[in-house]
Amino acid sequence: MVLPAIVLFLVMTVYPFAYMIYNSFTNLDLSKSGTGQFVGLRNYTDIVRDQLALSSIEFTALMVLIAVPVEMILGLALSYLIRGLFAEKALRSLFLIPMMVPAAVGGFGWKMLFNFIFGPINYFLNLIGLQSIEWFGKINTARTAVMIVEIWQWTPFVFLILYAALQALPKDILDAGKVDGADGWRLFLHIELPLLRPILYVTLLLRIIDVLRTFDSVYMTTYGGPGSATSTWSFYAYKVTVSYGWNIGYGSALCVILVIVSGILINTLTRVLNIGRELGLSKE
Amino acid sequence: MSRRNVVRLIRFCVALLVLAIFLFPIYWLVITAFKQESEWFTTPPVFWPSKFTLSNFLGTGSTTFGTTTTSIAGIVPFLRNSVVVATTTSIVSTIIAAFAAYSIARTKIGGTGLAGWFISMRFLPPIASAIPLYVIFSKISLLNTWWALILPYLVPTTALSIWLLISFFNEIPQEIEEAAYIDGASRTQAFLQVVLPLSAPGLAAAAILAFIQSWGEFLLALVLTSNASAQTLPVYLGRYITGWRVAWGPLSAAGLVTMLPVIVFALITQRYLIRGLTLGAVK
User: Fold this and answer.
1) Are the Cβ atoms of A104 and B282 closer than 8 angstroms?
2) Do residue A120 and residue B280 have CB atoms under 8 angstroms apart?
3) Average pLDDT in the B41-67 region?
């Protein structure tokens, strides 16, 4: 009875991926007839010399290095803020809403907020005496804007996991800590944080795997601009292939590398989660 | 009031403030969907419409912005596509996943390796499916059809549902099935008449999760469909956004239509959603 699932994944994932790997060694270009010849590793060596590709990979890496840690810290802070408050269950549910909004819709909402003239964000900045910012006009502000959208959408996810993990901390260990005189920061740093470490690691992996595929929010807000400052790995692969470039060979090479990077992280994740034990398939 | 209570009150106020910031983009989208045209673009921005109008939805407003984006009266085919694609994906993926999950839960077939392989399908970057599928589907003339979306959507949805359902089936005591065998039921009968009814909540949760995932999907829909005969709501939203000055009212209305079912479903199935999204890291 596992057969339908296996067939599905073979046909819809393994076969397209194999085809993509094959394409990545050819010069297949949908806008030119007679292409599709074998070109060896040329597409891969081209990536290293392609400034736009490197900048897209760089921005994706920046998201991993900046947006993800901010999400982790904010999410952790939020889970402590909400814990034990009046109406905490209702607060939790409300905080989840951003991550449930389809990314395309969220992106459009933020595009309005960031508008230079009519957007509420610049209005609030003016209220507290700051200059309006041309959010999508400059490299750094545009990159910040895209990261803000990501952080807005996914901090609730981090919060959710860590909040649940906090509830599940073993009471006796915490009480023992309190008896020994630990409180506030000391309790957090020496007892709670070490207990949370495995779940923090899982959350971090989940977030990195997801950030690597950032596309919707970029498409809906900056469209990769200005220039290609906010183009992400996925977005650039989209542009060189099915958007207007039609260079399937080159885009495939970009995707193969992305899949390899994601694959390593996914593999780490499934090992950390200990799927076998979790599902009762093996004892260890 | 004791010091403890003061601290808690301050924490509560901070929490409300942070919540207000997090919900503001959604608030803005919702009120903009009901603003009349004269209040879309104003300085200072309008934070509470002077008059709530439905013209952004129904197309009864004025037409200073030209005919394409003054209302979302043209949204109907996209809504239909979204409903068909998400519903079909949801049903088919739940069936495939239920079979796979049941045999894995009961026979441990394939062990950790197979289960891990299944689950990893949930995380692959969609752009890496979109590009080869575009070429393959164009060869077999499948581009711009419902199936061009349903087929790739089945992958992450089925993967996630398999995970969810294995733990559901694990929770159903095997003794109940054994009792059915003693009463002379075959394996299929036991599955259909004993296990399925017991796992109905799990199946429903898996189906709703699959629905949510495919409803909001953007990249594959953008690449694999090209017009109203198959494009879904997120693409409808994306199509009009790249212009220099897009009509905020109708687009917000479209955004509202796109996100409403998902948010409602998601809030109902919160617990399972969480379990699914975090791969069991949170129970």
Assistant:
1) no
2) no
3) 74
SS3 at position B145: coil
Q: HEC states along B206-258?
A: HHHHHHHHHHHCCHHHHHHCCCCCCCCHHHHHHHCCCCCCCCHHHHHHHHHHH
Domains of chain B and CATH, by start? 3-58 (no CATH), 75-277 (1.10.3720.10)
Task: Summarize pLDDT for A225-244 with one digit per residue, the tens.
Answer: 898 999 999 999 999 998 87
Residue A26, strand partner residues: A38
Could you tell me the residue range of the domain that residue A123 belongs to? 65-244
The domain tally of chain A equals 1
Q: Any idea which residue has 């409602």 for tokens? A: B264
| Cα atoms in the 13 Å half-sphere on the side-chain side of B221 | 29
Residue B45 has pLDDT above 70, yes or no: yes
Residue in the structure block whose two tokens are 């009814």: B197
Indicate yes or no: CB of A279 within 8 angstroms of CB of B32: no
- pLDDT of A114-157, one tens digit each? 999 889 999 999 999 999 999 999 999 999 999 999 999 999 99
Cβ proximity of B69 and B246 under 8 Å: yes
> What ipTM was estimated for this complex?
0.91
Facing A82 at nearest CB: one of B15, B270, B283: B15
Of the candidates B19, B114, B151, the beta carbon closest to that of A12 is on B151
**Looking at CA atoms only, how far is residue B132 from chain A in angstroms?**
5
Burial A166-197 (b: 16+ CB within 10 A, else e): beeeeeeeeeebeeeebeeeebeeebbeeebe
CA dihedral A225, A228, A230, A234 (to 10 degrees): 120
pLDDT along chain A (284 residues), means of 10: 92 95 93 86 93 95 96 95 87 90 94 91 93 92 96 94 86 82 80 88 93 93 90 94 87 96 92 80 66
* CB-CB contact of B54 with B34 (8 Å): yes
Judge whether A262 and B123 are in contact, CB under 8 Å: yes
- Distance to chain B for A169, nearest Cα, Å: 12
Domain at A239, CATH number: 1.10.3720.10
Cβ contacts (< 8 Å) between A160 and chain B: which residues? Answer: 274, 278, 282
Q: State the nearest Cα–Cα gap between B265 and chain A, in angstroms.
A: 10
